Amino acid sequence: KQEVTQIPAALSVPEGENLVLNCSFTDSAIYNLQWFRQDPGKGLTSLLLIQSSQREQTSGRLNASLDKSSGRSTLYIAASQPGDSATYLCAVSPPNDYKLSFGAGTTVTVRA
Amino acid sequence: DAGVIQSPRHEVTEMGQEVTLRCKPISGHNSLFWYRQTMMRGLELLIYFNNNVPIDDSGMPEDRFSAKMPNASFSTLKIQPSEPRDSAVYFCASSPTPTDTQYFGPGTRLTVL
Known about the structure:
By secondary structure, chain A is mainly beta. Chain A has strands spanning 4-7, 10-14, 19-25, 32-38, 44-50, 56-59, 62-67, 72-77, 86-93, 101-102, 106-111. Chain B is globular, with a radius of gyration of 13 Å. With 113 residues, chain B is mainly beta. The chains are: A mainly beta (112), B mainly beta (113).
């Protein structure tokens, strides 16, 4: 069974600092990986999807990398803002499969 | 597009009562997922429909849980009878195809007293 771990569970940084969020998974076979954002009392919003054949994806201030050999992904958020405060979850799925295995998330607080 | 719509947003009920959660997926999406989120277990997939047909219900915890999708624009998740351990946030998500990005609704927070 796939196990997805996110460390740290919580993170607090001052505004402007770069954020580094980590995700690791036990089965490092070929996988797609997604990063989601969850705001309190709301659903999940997909941020980035890294296909199994890719090594990274970028969207604005967000960059996510995937290292299948080590079973790790990292989400970088540049120049953090208070609006980035949320819980960030990573989810892993086998290619051509709908089943997402979620990590517990990292709760980020960006202090103004 | 209004996104995935779920109702009610909050539900408080007493143990033993029947609970029905509702979901309207994004128009044109053929895949629909029901998830449950708790502090202890995180996000778990309960059931997955494709083209209105249940494909995988292996995550449904017990026979007390049932889900239907009578048409492409509506799905229900029913718990009968409800128990306090069913208290959680239930999310519905839809996607154009089974392996596309899933779009989540705002969730229903269920409290069973």
